[in-house]
Design a protein that fits this description.
Layout: H1 3-28, E1 34-37, E2 40-47, E3 50-53, E4 56-70, E5 73-74, E6 81-93, E7 96-102, E8 107-114, E9 121-135, E10 138-151, E11 156-160, E12 166-172, E13 184-193, E14 201-203
Antiparallel strand pairs: 1-5, 1-14, 2-4, 2-13, 3-4, 3-13, 4-6, 6-7, 6-8, 7-9, 8-9, 9-10, 10-11, 10-12, 11-13
């Protein structure tokens, strides 16, 4: 092979390698599309949700998402669902009645990844939370994000109390709730799509 041919071969090989690297890099960065079946308007119900801070525990008889929407698909999983209205029923702190209301809406449901320990679950968060609690001599706001997973086999959105991103502010509560307190929220919401009455399934391709 003459010098010119050898140089052409080297250039061709280099270009081939570069093209291959570009394709591989692009493939590796391709977003996974999450799908929800069925999608659309939904409601959800939880029994005995709790919100705990270091010196107090808010306990409710029940909670209901009365208006929410699930998207059919999301390339990132962010905002795949919304909580447009949520109510908390018969809430107390130490036996004293408390009201819980949304300050801003919607709250957002996000899926993050398949669960590492159970193939029927997907990990996720509820973000953009902004809530207000008030009772006799006590009020506070809670803002931030909570963590958990959705169980495709049961239709339950489980908020597991983990994380440190739901935080108290504007607290006036006799020292029981203080600004900067990290709150732990625990609840299991059974989800039903309004059009079918069935629980959705959240999957990746």
């Amino acid at each position: 092979m003459n010098t010119l041919a050898r140089r052409a071969a080297v250039v061709t090989a280099a270009l081939g390698a570069a093209i291959g690297m570009t394709v591989s890099t692009a493939s590796a960065g391709t977003a996974t599309t999450w799908t929800v079946t069925p999608s659309g308007a939904y409601t959800a119900h939880a029994d005995f949700p709790t919100l705990e801070v270091p010196l107090a525990s808010l306990e409710c008889e029940s909670s209901d998402v009365t208006a929410g929407v699930l998207q059919a698909s999301s390339s990132t999983g962010n905002s795949i669902g919304s909580i447009n209205d949520i109510i908390f029923t018969n809430c107390t702190v130490g036996g004293i009645p408390f009201d819980v209301t949304m300050k801003t809406k919607p709250w957002l449901i996000n899926v993050v990844q398949p669960n590492a320990s159970n193939s029927n679950w997907v990990d996720g968060t509820v973000s953009s939370i902004s809530a207000h609690i008030s009772g006799i001599g006590c009020s506070a706001d809670f803002t931030g994000k909570v963590y958990g997973h959705y169980q495709n086999n049961t239709g339950d959105l489980v908020i597991d109390g983990s994380g440190a991103d739901l935080v108290a502010s504007n607290a006036s509560c006799l020292g029981l709730i203080n600004n900067g307190d990290v709150a732990s929220f625990n609840a299991s919401y059974h989800v039903a799509v309004t059009s079918t009455g069935t629980a959705p399934v959240i999957t990746t391709p």
